[in-house]
Amino acid sequence: MLLGVQYYRPPSPDPALWEQDIADIAQAGFGTVQLWLIWGWVEATPGEFEWGDYDRILDLAHARGLRVVISTIAEMQPAWLLRRYPDAAMVDHLGRVTPSTTRVEAQAGVTPGGSIDDPRVLGHMRDFLDAAARHFASHPALVAWDCWNENRWAMEGDGYLDYSPASIRAFHSWLVSRYGDLDGVARAWRRRFATWDDVQPGRKPGLPYTDLVAFQRFLTERAAEHLRFRRDTIRAADPSHPISAHCGEPSVNSAGSLFEQPLSRGNDFALAAELDGYGCSSFPHLQGMSMLDLGLRIEATRSAAGDRPFWLAELQGGGGRLGHHVLPAVRADEQQRWLWNGMGRGAKGTIVWQWRDEVLGRESGGFGFAGDDGHASARAEAMARTAGILAEHGDFLDAYRPEPAQVGVLFLPDTYYLEWAQDGTFGLQTRESMLGWMRVFEELQLPYEVLDPDHLSRLSDLKLLVLPWPLSVPPAALSAVAAWVERGGLLLTEADLAAFDEEAFYHPPGSRGASTLGLRSLGRRELPASGTLSLELDGAKFQLPAASWLEHYDPADARVLGTDDGHPIAVERALGAGSVISIGSFPGLAHSLTPSSDVPDFSSHLVSRAGVTISARVRGTDGATVQWRRGTSDDWSVLFLIGAPYSEHFVDVPNLGEVAEIEELTDGRAIVARQRLVVGLSAWGVAVVRWR
Fold first, then answer.
1. For residues 266 and 218, what is the distance between their CA atoms, to the nearest angstrom?
2. Which region holds residue 408: left if phi is over 0, alpha if psi is between -120 and 50, else beta?
3. Confidence of residue 513 (pLDDT cuts 50, 70, 90)
4. What residues does 687 pair with on adjacent strands?
């Protein structure tokens, strides 16, 4: 169980502070420090690598028994690179060469720098990564590499990137690998091209979808290729230490931002598959997250990591700053809830960001675990207590695994591309539909799995699957889902299933991929005046909120669950041993925008109908206020419970049986009474209960 803190992002902290800081870090219970190894800082002069400051910190850490994670920041390039190759600069969507400058939160190196599609840029980047891995691989303090920080490559651009000559050439090569040749691209895009010069990437939202979607997909896949480049370079020089990376936000949240296309930093599922572990940054007070919102991020990262270890890569250390705006302080108890919530969901490590308050730019005066927000001493005391628990029960917690989920939500990257092609950063219906259904299962206190169309191995473990905003579903994934339904699965899909193909062409209702599941659309309609859909399923009646539009269905060979003005707007169709329920609107989106009890009530009915096993239930609350995860470690059953400090909860555990031994591992308490657990949470609002 790795418990660490970010320390060095040159030139901060001042070298005069290092020795005492490292001692204080060890005293606070941290076992690991992370260092930002910035290319532009290390190789300010071509071919001259200056490692001395890092060597000193590693030596200080080793002397205190601390391990070190090195995060390679190769995207912050040395200024000389673009002076040597000015034609390698990134170009924005309007054809403007993008100036490179110091980044908003750092002043070493420049960004966005030269294109990562330019072989000259990659050659020098390879030299830096290779030299770094060779230099530090044998140091006894080194424990792991974080080879790509938040998967960044396009920071500080004034427009969408990258449309440089090198990137357009790489895009053309990618098209050849996908379509074979120029004629193949023309057939797929339904266009006529005389030469490759005619084939341009889509440049801004609102134009025809096809080339916009293609370029977004290229950027996503290019990120995985770049990750492999970084991994392979480090691995060749250091075959021993684990190599990980982490995202700034999970793919399910990545609907695009100011001058970033959706998933342009990559798809977590594809990235994690290339690594020894994967993580995600989370700054709850910076981003206004509730405990439930944090849970969504953790579950999305855990799902993407699959069987690999995952970690909380940057967990907010102290009160944040955005320029001269002061954000809430970080109390010790809530920080511990964040951390233990992650461990309950299976995280095997946490890096707190960061030790001292930042001194540069808009982050100045913020984020320090030991910073001046009034809670540093309490945080240090609590973290030292957590470190003691990890030291005492480290093997037990290492062996802990959350129970497998039986409910899943399918993440569909193509729908993110499609919406951005139309609405740019104003288009959030896809993301909010996805998060809406994840929120539902959090509220129902149900473990769930996020799946990706190219990574469906865990589909066989599920009994219930939801397809949010499913306007574009890859045919292979749709076929895999249909086969799963035929084996007995229960599928819930929202409206307009497979309305668009992979090239972003709209298909008339009678010719869609939805027919794979036996569904036939009769087209879109305006929302009903009531804004709700009346459904009846298995004799139970539901009033679901609607959003965006309404879809009518052909009732042939289907059971009608609800109508609007006499037309079916929700149907169920048997498919093999399973069934498909299709709802002609987007209740997940509606629930995300305006939470209500209707969607969770309906979902609870589906969960019961699918035969999903409920392994624990906290009475009198939901997942917005109390969160839990259950699992096993060796022959122990384990329950992590997160809620209000000192609160008491009654937990129903079906088939609890005879309990010979029960123990709470923090400062809470737990007993068995009348075949249920009675759990009192600690001063942090945490309990870790094990029994056998």
1. 10
2. beta
3. confident
4. 641
Strand segments, DSSP code E, in 361-426 are 401-402, 407-410
pLDDT tens readout for residues 388-429: 999 999 999 999 999 999 999 999 999 999 999 999 988 899
Cβ neighbours of residue 454 closer than 8 Å, sequence gap 6 or more: 269, 270, 474, 477
Beta bridge partners of 326: 321
Degrees, nearest 5: CA angle 497-540-612 = 65
Going from the C-alpha of 287 to that of each of 61, 281, 294, 303, 611, the distances in angstroms are: 32, 11, 10, 22, 37
Residues in the chain, total: 692
Residue with tokens 């309609």: 525
Is 90 exceeded by the pLDDT of residue 509? no
Give the pLDDT mean for 515-542. Answer: 95
CA distance 401 to 638: 9
Distance CA 414, CA 436 (A): 18
CA distances from 489 to 52, 85, 576, 580 (A): 59, 56, 9, 8
Q: How far apart are CA 128 and CA 529, in angstroms?
A: 62
Q: Which residue has the tokens 């470690």?
A: 633
Q: How many CB atoms lie within 10 A of CB 536?
A: 12
In the 8-state DSSP scheme, what is residue 114? Answer: B
Q: What is the pLDDT of residue 68?
A: 98
Name the 3-class secondary structure at 53: helix
Query: Does the pLDDT of residue 106 top 90, yes or no?
Result: no
Helix spans in 161-208 (H): 165-179, 182-189
Q: Phi/psi class of residue 655: alpha, beta or left (left: φ > 0; alpha: ψ in -120 to 50)?
A: left
C-alpha R_g of the chain = 26
Q: Taking the mean position of all CA atoms in its chain, how far away is CA 296?
A: 8
Which residues share a beta bridge with 350? 3, 312
Contact 106, 360 (CB under 8 A): yes
Find the helix or strand (DSSP H, E) in which 40 lies. helix 39-42
3-class secondary-structure state, position 635: coil
DSSP state of 660: S
Nearest partner of 260 among 430, 478, 416, judged by Cα: 416
- Give me 85's structure tokens: 């190759």
Residue 248 has φ and ψ, to the nearest 5°, of -80, -30
Q: What whole-number distance in Å separates Cα of residue 472 and Cα of residue 285?
A: 34
Mean pLDDT of 432-437: 98
The owner of tokens 């449309």 is 163
Q: Which residue, 260, 246, 253, 224, is CA-closest to 315?
A: 246
Structure tokens at 71: 């995060």
CB neighbour list of residue 293: distance below 8 Å, 6 or more residues apart: 284, 287
User: What confidence tier does 21 reach under pLDDT thresholds 50, 70, 90?
Assistant: very high
- Return the beta strands (E) in 237-390 as ranges: 243-247, 277-282, 310-316, 321-322, 325-326, 349-353
Q: Measure the N-to-C terminal CA separation of the chain; round to a whole number of Å.
A: 23
Quote the CA–CA distance of 296 and 303 in Å, as a whole number: 11
d(CA 290, CA 682): 20
Is-contact 74 113, C-beta < 8 A? no
Residue 275's contacts (CB-CB under 8 Å, 6 or more residues apart) are 147, 227, 231, 243, 244, 245, 308
Is residue 655 packed enough to be buried (19+ CB in 10 Å), middle (13-18) or exposed (0-12)? Answer: exposed
Name residue 5's beta-bridge partners: 33, 352
**Beta-bridge mates of residue 540:** 537
Contact criterion met (CB below 8 Å) for 398 and 389? no
Residue 251 — φ and ψ, nearest 5°?
Answer: -55, -35
